[in-house]
């Protein structure tokens, strides 16, 4: 399943840890605080558990959002997205048909 992980974290140290965990799970950074990637449900749950172990502040917010490929194919992108870089990471779902 394709997952988005999007966060708004106040502390740099925690933000860095979350980004590192996302990369370790094979997620790809789309923007500064958003990652996307293919994960099994089990791996997605493991990532969330690891993030929950961090010392998050009450004002911090993290979204883990599943997206099926057919739903994601309906995406609209405004602005520049380096699709070739994403394809190099195996995200062929970004391919325009």
Structural class: alpha+beta
Radius of gyration: 14 Å
How would you describe the oligomerization state of the chains in this entry? single chain
β-strand amount = 15-25%
Helicity level: 25-40%
Looking across the biggest beta sheet, what order are the strands in? 2-3-1-4
Q: Helix count, per DSSP?
A: 4
Fill in the CATH topology: Alpha-Beta Plaits
Mean pLDDT: 84
Report on the biggest sheet: 4 strands, antiparallel
What is the N-to-C succession of helices and strands? EHEEHEHH
Q: How many beta-strand runs? A: 4
* Outline type: globular
* C-alpha termini separation: 20 Å
pLDDT < 50 stretches: 92-97
**CATH architecture, please?**
2-Layer Sandwich
Indicate the CATH class. Alpha Beta
Number of domains: 1
Keywords:
97 residues; alpha+beta; Alpha-Beta Plaits; four-stranded antiparallel β-sheet; 4 helices
What report would you give on this structure?
Residues 92-97 have low confidence and may be disordered. With 97 residues, the chain is of the alpha+beta class. The chain has a single domain (2-69), classed as Alpha-Beta Plaits (2-Layer Sandwich), CATH 3.30.70.240. It is globular and about 35 Å long. It contains four helices and four strands; from the N terminus they run βαββαβαα. Strands 2-3-1-4 form a four-stranded antiparallel beta sheet. The chain has helices spanning 12-24, 41-52, 69-72, 83-88, and strands at 2-8, 28-31, 34-38, 61-67. Helix content is 36%, strand content 24%.
């Amino acid at each position: 399943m394709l997952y988005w992980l999007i966060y708004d974290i106040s502390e740099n140290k925690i933000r860095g840890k979350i980004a590192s965990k996302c990369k370790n799970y094979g997620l790809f950074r789309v923007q500064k605080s958003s990652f996307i990637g293919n994960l099994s449900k089990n791996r997605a749950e493991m990532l969330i558990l690891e993030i929950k172990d961090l010392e998050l502040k009450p004002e911090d917010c993290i979204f883990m959002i599943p997206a099926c490929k057919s739903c994601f194919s309906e995406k609209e992108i405004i602005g520049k997205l380096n699709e070739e870089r994403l394809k190099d990471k195996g995200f062929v779902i970004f391919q325009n048909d």
